[in-house]
């Protein structure tokens, strides 16, 4: 019977191979199989590339089926690829990584296996590149890695690898180098020097670098005594054995430790070194200067910020011009905030500035303060002591030496220096007037100058006796007619005095009944009161009429401030009135009930603004309270006597009132 042949998975198509025609074909792994369906003839055309790429033997088959009269049978066309037995090719791309007395090798397996699978690798090592020794005879694994042990740290090794199969050992690979090693030992002998918010840390290189060159260092810091460490510098990037650590807090104790770094890792840390970052203090504040005799005492407030280190002393400088400064005290060596600076000339202002010192150095100086050394003045010279009424006028020349400070006033003593009183009002010029003395008592005056340093040496004048200088002898009466209504003596010499009814004065505002006596630079006003306390009228002679048991209002201007004016009614002292700072005085003085009625004089004994004594005498009359009164001024005011009391006082002091016309002038 006719048999027909087929090729499983084949493709129909006519192909001529070796002069024969095949109508079925199928492409396999290593080539193409062809079958003639009519005859069952077959052929195989190899794929050279696929076969040449085989590293070991292999087989391939194609299935064939034959059919006839409904019957079929199968078979196969076997194809065998054989590889000649040989050693493999050499491994490639060898790399070596060093470890602690070890090296880890990696490579790429050879492309050519020599007909059989690789079963292991041989590893060799060399320290000179020419002499090789076996490190691993056979890894017994096809894995292209190896771990080589037993090496010497710090020694550079070259490695090469050969592949092993059933045929033998391949040629070695190219070489790769590695130097085994470990992390270095810890650095030693660390130190830390403080700076401003930083520290300079230094150390000694480790004894052993672990077989790998040290490339940098790691620095850690601690502010809690070493309980907690943080990284200050992760990698210095240098083999230098010093480093500056910044970002620290002044005044905070800080510890440091250092670790060395090489290619194998980071060493354990060194022992710690401790320091306290700091800078110079801030400048002192509130500088003050207290002057003395040839010295000043400087005082100040310590800086709020000591720079992180306790202040140990202060530097004190002086200057007389604020430009050139001289060190007075280089270092007080004390935390005291004051210092005595000697050898300073009295009277010359000295500026002082202060700087604080700590272990970091000296601060900028404070703002300056100034003071002038001085002592008490020398003694003035008393040139004359002139007696007056209950007073002495002391003329003097100022001290030749004011002690280096301006004289501010003078003090006097009348009891041999037991007690002293300041001149009042304050004066720095001659003369001064000493009041409230007792007439007839001899007094020896001592005088001394005052400046800010105190009271100076005293000068003593000749004894002098304050005396009353009455114009009218006791019991006598000045004539009351003609032009003899008043008298004025200046230092005992009679001068012109004008006695006027104030009502006659232009623009007068004085109360009616006011008598004004003026001359020699002084003016005196008098106003009498009646029994009811109101202003009393002038008598029929135009004289001031005083009422026994009532009072008279007196006032005056042009007298020496602080002096005393004695007011006499005949030979009776009505009172003593103190002159104010503006040279004026005023008082309400009682008229004695026991004085005889009739004509009298009122005398004002005092000192003028020029220091000369002045006695002003004015004619008055005195009547009994029950006697017939002169015409009352109440008719002009329409008020009661009682209601006039405050009005009368106001009129005396301020100068309001009624007018009466009469003018008298007495001349020398």
- Count up the helices: 3
Annotation, overall tally of beta strands: 50
Shape: rod-shaped
Decide which structural class fits the backbone.
mainly beta
- Please indicate the percent range of residues in DSSP E strands (runs of 2 or more): 35-45%
> First CA to last CA: what distance?
199 Å
The biggest beta sheet reads: 7 strands, mixed
Structural commentary:
The chain has 668 residues and is an all-beta fold. Strands 38, 39, 43, 45, 46, 48 and 49 form a seven-stranded mixed beta sheet that branches.
Put the structure in a nutshell.
The chain is 3% helix and 44% strand.
Write the layout of secondary structure elements.
Layout: E1 4-7, E2 11-17, E3 20-27, E4 31-35, E5 42-46, H1 48-52, E6 58-68, E7 71-81, E8 92-98, E9 103-108, E10 120-126, E11 133-136, E12 145-148, E13 157-164, E14 176-178, E15 188-195, E16 198-204, E17 216-222, E18 230-233, E19 242-245, E20 254-262, E21 265-266, E22 273-275, E23 285-291, E24 296-301, E25 313-319, E26 326-329, E27 338-341, E28 350-358, E29 361-362, E30 369-371, E31 381-388, E32 391-397, E33 409-413, E34 421-422, E35 432-434, E36 446-451, E37 454-460, E38 486-490, E39 493-495, E40 497-501, E41 515-519, E42 522-528, E43 544-547, E44 551-557, E45 564-569, E46 572-578, E47 585-590, E48 598-607, E49 613-623, H2 634-637, H3 644-654, E50 663-666
Keywords:
668 residues, mainly beta, 7-stranded mixed β-sheet, 3 helices, 44% strand, rod-shaped
